[in-house]
Amino acid sequence: VSVGILMWRQPPKHKEWKGPGTTAHFYEILLGRCYTYTQVVRPELRHTDCQKIGKAFTSAFLSKDPCGSTEQDYRPLMELTTQTVPCDKTLFWSKSSELAHDYTWVQRDMYTLEDTLLGYMADGLKWCGDSGSSEMNYQSCPHWREDCSNNSVSVFWNTVSKRFAEDACGVVHVVLNGSISNTFDEKSTFGRVEVFNLHPEKVHTLKAWVMHNIESVPSDSCSSSSLNNLKQILKTKNIIFVCQNNYRPVRLLQCVKNPEHSSCR
Ligand code: NAD
Fold it and tell me: Is 183 a pocket residue for ligand 1 (Cβ < 6 Å)?
């Protein structure tokens, strides 16, 4: 007798979302980056317990609704990872990730969020869990615009960006992209979270470097209305605003990739 094999579609294990799922090997990458950072990049942090940090990270979102994420979920993780950036050395960025990180790679005493442990561990990764399962969802995760804004990844970045800004002191810096129309975007993490969480008692000046892509026509500069908006917001906070177009040390990094351009000669 031939035995018919009954085949049926497996019901989906997790809820289906519009965004890409958890990065493959998420936990291994997270732990590996924690060890790289604390043993190699900043050996003064070599006594950090990466296992504990890794567990606190995943406990913040596993077995939970990925659209119901809160700052409190990440509190235990935040408490395990306090790190001080020296005054005058904080660098924010908005729509200029690559250039800002190229700069701190060379100017090693300046720190973006991604040059601190938590930012370093999470940069570029995606993650989410599911309320009906204790596993990560590798199939899909909430898309922040199409599904929900309080998803596990967005809430993480809002939480760490907020603390990064609260901790800043002295002169703070920001690399902005002058080749887009909204160089200062009030809806960006920089505009929505970081600027509003600077403490005027500690931060007296914000220096903006508005950078134009070498190949494209400049769209915004220090004198544009979006930058004026930033200036006004800082004024209400009693923080001095200084702005410079194409700050030369950063310009020189752009020129490495385009040495023959007239603006690089
Ligand atoms: P940006 O618009 O260039 O965004 C940076 C990254 O965050 C992009 O990948 C973008 O898609 C994503 N993003 C922005 N808002 C989001 C949201 N609400 N939900 C999910 N993803 C979102 O620049 P920005 O928004 O001003 O953020 C940069 C600043 O904030 C930096 O100063 C940094 O300290 C911090 N930050 C870093 C990251 C990161 O991925 N490393 C993400 C958010 C914020």
Answer: no
